Amino acid sequence: MENPPSILVTPMAPAMSAQFTRITFSNLFVRRAGPGSTELTVEGRPSDQLGRRNLTDSPVFDGRGPDASLVARVQGVATQMGNVRKLDLGDAEYVKEVSGTYGAFEGATTLTSFRIVTSTARAWGPWGIESGTRFCITAPIGSSIVGFYGRATTRLVAAIGVYLRQL
């Protein structure tokens, strides 16, 4: 992609650059409720076609107990629009590839289509309009795609990346 995605970590210690760096986190706990947490869902208006927005501002601690230290904050906005699709994977099935297209839309480079392929060659999508430059992200042998991260314009997805897990 023209502008590859990067991970932005808001540390509670000295600043660190996480762009194009693999960071492994373990034993971190996000408190989505309680002191210092805010989660808000805003229903969209039919006129703006942006669906439901979920706003998050939650603390991340290095443990579960009262002696845990605050190490970061999860902050962001997620937009749910269009029709929700549920993908039911088989017991030994996993996501092995995501692909699609990206191109110019309303003056910005955005994701224009998206497709998911599993280890059993089942495919979902494409969603969107297949136009622009093609991309494909395939999990290395011995791993699977378990999540996504991305970057957005004020309305649309501008970049996407994947989280991997060893099988």
TrEMBL record:
InterPro entries: Jacalin-like_lectin_dom (IPR001229), Jacalin-like_lectin_dom_sf (IPR036404)
Domain of life the protein comes from: Eukaryota
Pfam families named in the record: Jacalin
Keyword Iron-sulfur: no
Gene Ontology molecular function: carbohydrate binding
Thylakoid listed as a keyword: no
Keyword vocabulary terms for this entry: Lectin
PANTHER family: OS05G0143600 PROTEIN
UniProt protein name: Uncharacterized protein
Annotated organism of origin: Zea mays
UniProt lineage: Eukaryota, Viridiplantae, Streptophyta, Embryophyta, Tracheophyta
